[in-house]
Amino acid sequence: MNSLFNRRSALVTVVIAAALVLSGCSKGVNDSAGGASGDCGSWSIAMHAWGGYTASAQVVAEIAKKELGCTITQTTLDEGPTTYDAMEAGTIDVIIEDWGGGRWSEWVDRGAVFEAGENGNVGLIGMYVAPWMAAKYPDITDSKNLNKYADLFKTADSGGKGAWFEGPAGYTTIGEKMVAANKLNFKVILSGSEAALVDGFLNAEKNKTP
Predict the structure, then answer these.
(1) Can you give the pLDDT at residue 36?
(2) Rg (CA), the chain
(3) What is the spatial distance between Cα 151 and Cα 120, in angstroms, rounded to a whole number?
(4) Strand, coil or helix: what is 168?
(5) Which of 32, 124, 140, 153 is exposed most, by the fewest CB atoms within 10 A?
(6) CB atoms within 10 A of CB 26
(7) How many CB atoms lie within 10 A of CB 117?
(8) What distance in Å separates the CA atoms of residue 171 and residue 98, rounded to the nearest whole number?
(9) Are 82 and 95 in contact (CB under 8 A)?
(10) Burial class (CB in 10 A: 0-12, 13-18, 19+), 154
């Protein structure tokens, strides 16, 4: 995934990069070897609502504060245009992780945002089923075969189609595009939270249900 910064100053790139390097050397965010080494100013990190982002942002924030003397604020915002607008307005300086695949280009063209490059995390967006289903129906992992299994995924909320569960509203997902592109007899249903989506998978494997 990519990290983004606003136009405020290239210094923020150095600050965050240094924090990431230090985080790799430190035993933990509370084990600072020598305390803050200076005053790097005040910076605002956008916080997006999934576990991996929160963890990465917290590491950067703690190391930047303890090792570099930065003042860090963390502001929860929806990902995408809402955050890019905040960066253009100067209220957000850093996005730690963005799944947008270039959706920020409009703001880059205006000089409001610049892409800092990959942050080292690797993530995949795709279709997943419980392991027991992949073992019992080996061809289910090929999207061309999904329609013959649609009945297995019907729920009270899926309108006679198979239920295709996605992350919460506001997450970057491609479920609707995948359903449309593959002409699948599935209905996209948004889960209430990342935890609900994970629990659904765990329960499906435990109870051997779709």
Answers:
(1) 54
(2) 21
(3) 39
(4) coil
(5) 124
(6) 17
(7) 11
(8) 10
(9) no
(10) middle
CATH assignment of 2-118? 3.40.190
Determine the 3-state secondary structure of 87 from DSSP: helix
* Partners of residue 105 on adjacent β-strands: none
pLDDT digits (tens, 9 = 90+) for 64-94: 999 889 999 999 998 889 999 999 999 999 8
Whole-structure pTM value: 0.66
List the chain domain ranges. Answer: 2-118, 131-207
**Half-sphere exposure for 203 (CA within 13 Å, toward CB):** 6
The first and second tokens of residue 10, run together, are 């290239």
Q: State the Cα–Cα distance between residues 102 and 210, nearest whole angstrom.
A: 34
Smallest Cα–Cα separation from 6: which of 97, 80, 115, 82? 115
The owner of tokens 């990342």 is 194
Q: What is the pLDDT of residues 123-164, one digit of tens each?
A: 777 788 999 999 999 999 998 899 999 999 999 999 999 999
Q: Which two tokens stand for residue 121?
A: 């995390």
Residue with tokens 């629990």, as numbered in its chain: 199
Write out the two tokens for 6.
């606003």
- Cα distances from 117 to residues 4, 110, 140, 157, 198, in angstroms, run 8, 18, 35, 41, 29
